[in-house]
Amino acid sequence: MSEPQRDDKDKGVVLTEAQQRARRSRSIAIALALAALVILFYVMTLVKGPGVLNRPF
After folding, report:
1. Domain ranges of the chain
2. 20 to 30 A Cα–Cα from 11, which one of 17, 27, 44, 57?
């Protein structure tokens, strides 16, 4: 089965400038929160020391 051809006027959802700015700011906020979590986990691993790797299986 082939996908139907789209007309030039049927481009799907077109965001306004305000919506694009809001989407970008949300994406940046999510990226910063994820980076903060990664840094937090890394620092907590360093604080626990190398003993965190010496666990019985």
Report:
1. 17-50
2. 27
